[in-house]
Specification:
2 domains, 367 residues, 15 helices, homodimer, Creatine Kinase, Chain A, domain 2, two-stranded antiparallel ribbon, alpha+beta, 10 strands
Chain lengths: 367, 367
């Protein structure tokens, strides 16, 4: 598979809607693994890093899951192409900055990706649409089991899998879900929810992981602890909390719909309007506008048909995607203008929001 | 004429476009006069004020110019009705607050209005569309001359007409033009222009006169000095400065159109969009949106047909007009919602802005 195939095709999880797809965009499980008897990447010299790459890359490429995969040493990719992989949540921002010996191998559907020589020797992840943490875990666990039969993992009987950072020790697993929470943001309950989630040992982060801002009302919820619990237990606990957040979000939306409909009409109407008629739109504003459009689909202002288009636009309006689209480097002003142009074009035949298609909310109320 | 006739009909100057109508909304000339041998209003007791009213009101009502006029003691009008007259620039905010003895008499076209017992015994004004200061002066001068033949004005051979505040002494005249200056605001040259105008002894004020904010990119430019110059001289000097401001505004628009068209496309597109699809709009935002729509007409984004509609909306979306429309007192939230509803309704068949109808700008460039 070539890079342009990735470019042309959004990931499978983006095009489909999974369980609780109105609120949960995607579920992701990442495992950190290291080889025994060779320095961890932070300590490894270039020779070590190449040795790791030479051992890991063929093992990953040989997996049946990676049949027809895209596989590349990151040193062979331009900055923009690496940024594309970041914007697709396939590699981390940290990985994109890494030098010799770093590589990424991903399957055709972009649901599986293995990074080599990121913070650990191997960082492997799976992404599924909707609230599908167990399925995502199952998918990456199979990959991990196969790799374990050919690679000699650093494993300790007391501590479990050894990792570069102690916060990953044990299972080496980080499970997370990307939640779309416009209801909790609009009704100003989001901070209360984040604080409560933090208190029980889970993390809430922005669109691009640790230290990033929550744009477009999108929040990643993940486990903090990796040690002392089985993978299934961690996932079950995380999923339980996410189900509670979903319930809070549904209640917030219902309350807004029933008691503050004018505010929703206004926010959704303005977002539709600016997406249709704006000519200069920043990434941050675009994500907020698309977020309200998605909420509009959930609440019956727009047809369900456009949900996948919105989810794809969330990705396509990112800076690197725009530059690949334009086939040249773009300054910030040019990006803001092209971003607006693409959205106007994609949404030009979208009928105006109709406040009368309120069946959706009635369904919710009667649940 | 009854109050409801005023309500139903916008003023003549609002429905027509005068000289330089793209930039000059209206021209206004106001004269301050007082009767001899009776206390000025600020000093007058109620008995004096009633005496003034009894002398002045019939004299004004008898003018042929006031044939079929609306004439009312302000104590007979509700707060909302008085506010309507303020929003139409027919009486001052100060006059609206005045008690016994205050009255206002205005002609059918709402181009002439005489206030009784405002800061002076008589405050009479004329309003014309566009840059028409001489015509406006001529109109009010005729009224003044006729009144002077029946009323005994306080006049001093050295100082001219005597007034309550010394800043009005002499001619008692304040001539002003309402300018729409989005080009100078968008290109951030407006403060430079205001400072220059202030330095040569003219005043620049907001939409509702002294101490009010410049909303909707609307600015009133008027003479500060009333003493030591003939009325014609004051008006000629003011008009000369206004012509210079017009030139600056035209240059600013041309430069924006030629060099920053995307910014114009964005501002005008967004304003159109929010007016068409917003559901909660404050007075301030509405004035800014309508301002950009008017600029859109000037620059050929919209047809000339809607100019009068925009100018009428500038008035109709004001708080008192909304409450008369709703026929009840409205809270701020209800007003913001009704304001958006009225604008959506009035503009629902307005075609979307077209950046290709750029003849307008070419015309300007070749001037």
């Amino acid at each position: 598979m070539q890079f342009k195939t990735i470019l042309k095709n959004p990931a499978e999880w983006m095009l489909s809607s999974g369980p609780h797809g109105e609120i949960v965009i995607s579920s992701r499980v990442r495992l950190a693994r290291n080889l025994r008897d060779i320095s961890f990447p932070g300590w490894a010299v270039e020779e070590d890093r190449m040795e790791i790459l030479n051992r890991v890359k063929p093992a990953v490429e040989n997996l049946t899951e990676m049949n027809g995969a895209f596989s590349s040493d990151l040193s062979n990719l331009t900055a923009v192409k690496k940024q594309i992989l970041v914007e697709r949540h396939l590699i981390s921002r940290e990985q994109a900055a890494k030098a010799a010996g770093s590589a990424a191998i991903m399957n055709r559907k972009q649901t599986l990706c293995v990074m080599v020589n990121e913070e650990d020797h191997l960082r492997m992840q799976s992404i599924k649409a909707g609230l599908s943490l167990s399925d995502a875990y199952k998918m990456i666990d199979e990959v991990d089991t196969k790799l374990e039969s050919t690679l000699d993992y650093a494993f300790d009987n007391q501590y479990g899998y050894l990792t570069a950072c102690p916060t990953n020790l044990g299972t080496g697993m980080r499970a997370s879900a990307m939640l779309h929470l416009p209801g909790l943001v609009l009704s100003e309950q989001i901070n209360k929810v984040i604080n409560a989630v933090n208190k029980i040992g889970l993390a809430v982060r922005g669109l691009y992981g640790e230290g990033t801002e929550a744009l477009g009302n999108l929040f990643q919820v993940s486990n903090q602890h990796t040690l002392g619990e089985q993978e299934n237990e961690i996932i079950a606990r995380l999923e339980k909390v996410i189900r509670q957040i979903i319930e809070h979000e549904e209640n917030a939306r219902e309350k807004l719909y029933n008691e503050k409909q004018t505010i929703l009409d206004d926010k959704i109407g303005r977002s539709y309007a600016i997406l249709r008629y704006g000519h200069i739109i920043s990434t941050k504003e675009a994500l907020d506008l698309l977020s309200m459009l998605r909420a509009g689909v959930d609440l019956g202002y727009f047809s369900e048909d456009i949900r996948a288009l919105i989810d794809v636009l969330f990705m396509e309006i990112q800076p690197a995607h725009l530059q690949v689209f334009a086939d040249r480097k773009l300054g910030a002003e040019e990006r803001d203008s092209l971003r607006a142009e693409i959205m106007r074009d994609r949404l030009k035949s979208l009928p105006e929001p109709s406040k009368f298609s309120s069946n959706k909310s009635n369904e919710q109320s009667s649940e």
